[in-house]
Amino acid sequence: MCHACHCTWCQRETGSAFVLNATIELSRYTNLGADPILTNIPSATGQGQCIARCPKCYIAVWSVYGGGSDMPLRTVRVGTLDDPNVCPPQCHIYTSTKQKWLKLQDGLPEHAEEYDREKYWDKESLERMAKVREEIKRLKEEGKNVSL
Known about the structure:
It contains three helices and seven strands; from the N terminus they run βαββββββαα. It is of the alpha+beta class.
């Protein structure tokens, strides 16, 4: 799933009006360069966020929300992909804090805050997320810092 996030935290982190984020399992993620620099920062939820930055240019490549680098999910910044067009947004989230001058006219679903994954994700994505939830449960039992 890819969404355009308009929250004020993403606006600050990117220096832009919104960010395109794609959620993907760690098992499907491949780092093609040097290991990223991991930085833990606060978040609006209070659970924190781990941002992975390119060690050469310091651009945020992916994040983990609500857990450390042990999380089995990555939230990839679509703009860092070789071809960002392969991952268009499927909805807008946190539109309650979007820039007032920005007019959303693309016909995509708009959500004032977060959205209901059960309603918007396709069957395959929901099945993949169920597996991730099981992995998170196992990691929690091992004492890892993970949440969803």
